[in-house]
Amino acid sequence: MLPSDLAGACRPVKLLLFDCDGVLTGGQIVLGNGDLDLKLFSTRDGLGIGLWHRAGYACGVVTARWSEALARRAQELKFEEVHQSTSNKRETVRAIRERRGLRREEVAYVGDDLNDLCVKHEVGLFFAPADAHPAVASRADHHLRTPGGQGAVREAIDLILTAQHRYDDLIATYLD
Question: What is the CATH number of domain 4-172?
Answer without folding.
Answer: 3.40.50.1000
